[in-house]
Amino acid sequence: MLSVTIDQSQDFLTLTTSNGPRRFHAIWLRDNAQDETTRSTANGQRLITLRDVAPDTQIAAAEVTPDGHLSVTFTPEGQSISYEIPWLEANAYDQRTQETRGWLSHQTEIWDALLASDVPSGDFDALRKGRAALRDWLGNIVRYGFAKVVNAPVKPGALFEIVDLFGYVRETNYGRLFDVRTEVNPTNLAYTGLGLQAHTDNPYRDPVPTVQVLHCLESSAAGGENMVVDGFAAAMRLKAETPDWFDLLAAHCARFEYAGEAAVCLSSRRPMIELAPDGELIAVRFNNRSCAALTDVPFEKMQSYYAAYRRLGEIIDDTAMEVTFRLEPGEAFVVDNTRVLHARKGYSGEGTRWLQGCYADKDGLRSTYDAMMRDTSLEAAE
Ligand code: FE2
User: Fold this and answer.
1) Which residues are CB-neighbours of 13 under 8 A, at least 6 positions away?
2) Cα–ligand 1 centroid distance for 201 (angstroms)
3) pTM for the predicted model, two decimal places
4) How many angstroms separate the alpha carbon of residue 200 from the centre of ligand 1?
5) What is the whole-number distance in angstroms between the Cα of residue 287 and the centre of ligand 1?
């Protein structure tokens, strides 16, 4: 079943397995050698630079060995290198389909209000023990971009214990944490019924804080529910409705700014819908309060850009897109701030509401999750 053929050019080979044929270039194979002169046996890091590989590297010989490896001999180097075939299959780049603009990672699942019946959530004590409960909760944040925590301690600063589950706090000019404390005073109507449009936090930072944690300490006021909207779902809906508007918001930078306190002047120039060069949807930035004057959209496109911006906001405001939940003391939620927008509904009546928030970084969260996914002992131990 396993076979290998070398192209006449000697620039690439074709490895055929039960999954079909896959082509690999000589230069790619040589650069990705896993032998001990190319990769550190201690930490897996590459020991060579591309300069150490001859630019005219070609394949002199290739065979599937009796023990099931692929052995390749390179010219002019003359070195033979052995490859694990499952590794080659896992890293094959041949026959990748050309994706359109706005595709999503297979690890991502977009959602709307229907998710309200099954809000991803984890019990703090179970999460603190780590293992499968933590892995599955982190997996939900990777998949949906947010998850709740229940039964966390009700004490100031306890949100750091939630961050400790997966990563590190990102300190900003707002401090290591910030208090969101509202005392509802019926004599001052300005402080009642104040809701906030769904937004991503701090788009004026570069990079933005990629994770936000909000933890509830007091909640005796009526209302004030928290709400989340999947920014990826909103962007994909805009794309389905009016592809040109999706393209406009992805093709031109918006500007965001915050200079609301002394000695602070934060500004960024980034699109509201951010795509990777191959079209993958990788981030959404949306925040009416910190959007600065838009100056990077050509004159002839500005009117349409505003129509697209308006429509994206209407989609975000559509209750069919939102998941609403009330945080009780000791409950928190974690959001991927590059994707999921959050908001607060208005308050009414008497009482207090006190939340503490902080930022963290998604790379730490992903690292914790991916390391757990590679830990084969985890499944067996549960
Ligand atoms: Fe916010």
Assistant:
1) 4, 5, 6, 7, 23, 24, 26, 29, 59, 62, 72
2) 5
3) 0.93
4) 6
5) 9
